[in-house]
Write a structure and sequence with these properties.
By secondary structure, this protein is α/β, with parallel strands linked by helices. The protein has a domain of 184 residues. It contains eleven helices and eleven strands.
């Protein structure tokens, strides 16, 4: 891992040149907030840097809501996804463990991963529900992403993380090695300031491991209390960077369609005989927390919750999972 730098003007020019080879997606601001958009030459100057966080999770680029998986994945133009907060980068960690497993390798997911360059964005500041550091995830990327950028005044500082990121830098004219400790110290200071904001905002929140123990031992009363506001819309699971449940639906002509599913939907575990172990709302509600904080940690190395806070923001019932956890402490 090492640092490079380039002027913002030259960076924008390089992105415009890359459009001929890559599809580029990056966060743009609209009346509805910040989200990933397809970038054209005219929108390059409007790309958002270092501001948390796009409304949609990064998983949307790798796990379509619905796709036909009966045939081999086709070739597509390579793509660059920019402006990714580290909570989303960390979410890709567990997706890779699931879908790139040597015994259950998903060709569609693998093809998209190989065809994508991930450019992370160091977070400067936090939003109300950000809590990545509570789960030992930094607000800046040093792994999984191919490179990371931070905009400082009229300069773009590039942190090269992977071989794929290093290869991309060779296509960027005017990029130079970052020499001297001054700018790197400034980057470190920005990182530390954001970490301090996260610590201050979430000082009462238990860490990932303790949360798992609290969830496992929690009595039914807490689940009944919080689930009383749940409308089973599934927003918390569909917006989550790490939730990946899906259905395989058989269609005429021997087609098989993969469609994203959610454990919070009624009937999620209903079987052919009519039995449904999650028929009770509070049990179904608890299932999501058991999955993220108890069951997945026993099987995967990556975090099943990255502290992005999107589930809190998306909840129609205004359920705040962090308030639930702090009540359990």
């Amino acid at each position: 891992m090492y640092y490079l730098h380039i002027s913002k003007e030259e960076w924008d020019q390089a992105l415009e040149q890359l459009l001929s080879t890559y599809n580029i997606f990056a966060p743009l601001e609209s009346e509805f907030g910040q989200d990933y958009e397809f970038i054209e030459a005219a929108s390059i100057q409007n790309i958002i840097y270092n501001k948390p966080k796009p409304a949609a999770p990064l998983k949307s680029f790798f796990l379509p809501v619905k796709e036909n998986v009966s045939s081999q994945p086709g070739s597509q133009k390579p793509r660059i996804i920019m402006g990714i907060p580290n909570c989303d980068i960390a979410g890709i960690g567990i997706l890779d463990e699931i879908y790139l497993d040597k015994d259950f390798h998903d060709l569609f997911y693998s093809n998209r991963r190989d065809n994508t360059i991930l450019i992370a964005s160091d977070c400067i500041g936090i939003l109300e529900h950000c809590h990545c550091s509570s789960y030992n995830i930094n607000p800046y990327s040093t792994v999984i992403a191919d490179m990371a950028v931070i905009k400082m005044e009229n300069e773009i500082i590039i942190r090269v993380i992977s071989a794929k990121g290093e290869e991309l830098t060779r296509l960027i004219p005017h990029v130079q090695p970052l020499t001297g400790e001054g700018v790197i110290s400034s980057v470190d200071a920005v990182h530390k300031a954001t970490e301090e904001l996260l610590q201050s905002a979430n000082s009462r929140l238990p860490d990932y491991s303790r949360t798992g123990n609290l969830v496992k031992d929690a009595k039914s009363e807490i689940w009944e209390k919080y689930s009383s506001h749940c409308v089973s819309c599934g927003a918390c699971t569909t917006i989550c960077p790490t939730c990946t449940c899906f259905l395989l639906i058989d269609k005429p002509g021997f087609e098989k369609v993969k469609q994203l599913d959610a454990c919070q939907y009624p009937g999620f575990e209903r079987v052919a005989g009519g039995e449904d172990s999650l028929i009770d709302l509070h049990i179904r509600f608890r299932n999501r927390y058991m999955c993220k904080y108890v069951w997945k940690p026993s099987k995967f190395k990556s975090r099943a919750c990255t502290g992005c806070g999107r589930c809190i923001e998306a909840c129609i019932g205004k359920i705040n999972k962090n308030e639930l956890f702090m009540e359990l402490v």
